[in-house]
Structure formats: C-alpha cells, structure tokens
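Please, structure for the following, as tokens.
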Amino acid sequence: MWSELSERQKGGLVGLAIVSALIVGYWLGQSGNDKKPMAQEPLELGSGTVSPKKPDEPVEVVMIRVSVKGTVRTPGVYDLTKGSRVEDAIEAAGGALEGADWESVNLAKILKDGDEVDLKGQIVKRLDDVAWPIRINEAPVEVIEQLPGIGPVMAGEIVRYRSEVGMIQGVQDLERIPGFGPEMSRQILPYIRFD
C-alpha cells in the first residue's frame, strides 16, 4: 500500500506522524507538572520548631583581626575566622620559636576582634658562668640570647637555622639568617666560635 502512494501523499503522512508525536510528547510532559509543590512548613519537633534550611543560602564567614607578638616566627596582625583560638593565632604567625613560655598563654581561649596574643619567652637568669667565646653551633638559646644585640627572638632564629640548614660555618652563614646583618655580626664575633 505504501508503494501505491504518490510522493506528495507520503510526505503528508510523514509530516502528520511527526506533528502527532510532538503533540503526544508535549501532553505527556505537561501531565507530570499537574502536581503542585507542597508548601514547606516549619517542622514541629519537641517544644521548639525548626524551619527547613535552604541549600542555596550562602554561609557568611565573619573575620576578626588579631595582633600576635612575642616569641613567634612572624609577629604581626592577622585576619582569622571568628571562633579562632589563641593556638590558631600562633600558628598563623608561623608558630612559636624555641624558648616560648607556653604558660604565658591559654591556647584554648577563643579570640575576639582586636585581641592581642603575646607569647612570652621563658625567663632565664643570666648565665654568668658561661665560658666565652661560646660555640654557636652547640649553645642553647638561653646562652645565645646573652650575646650583644641578640634577644630571645634572634637567638631562636639562630637555633632554628642550625637545626633546619646545618652548622653555622662563619659570618656568611650568620648573615643568611633573617634579620641578621653585618653590624650584628661585628658585635657578636668576639664572643662566638664556629667549631
């Protein structure tokens, strides 16, 4: 029977079939949309109510600004998220240096905007019985900080350099330590040995 139809008739039947298929597809698609979304009401749980949370609501991050100083690697002002603790502030400042007095701070204290964290150095009595010149590659931080112009922070940097890079062989190695310059080298050279 198909072969008996003219080309014009065949084209008309194909067009009619396509239009019919489109109408049926549209009708089936619309029938699924007859369901109306249910209104979301607060859920009753116990004595309180809980409203459903919208998944696309952005979470607002509140920042605070805190000053960190003392025996930390990089003292300064840091932006932290609200709810951060003293421990987080010290970590943001690069961590504590050797000789930090952990009793001087409450690591678990929650910080607020404008707070100051001051990680003190351990109080060490002057070591008058030190044999001068000292061996810079063996001396503890308490001895190194007694050198002229060297305090607890720079003494900590010298000890850190020794442990991370290796032995200090001469003035050139000392001057590679951040914050250490030719004038500081000149001041301490009579008081140190490199062996």
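The chain has a mean pLDDT of 82. Strands lie at 43-45, 48-50, 63-70, 76-81, 116-119, 134-135, 192-193.
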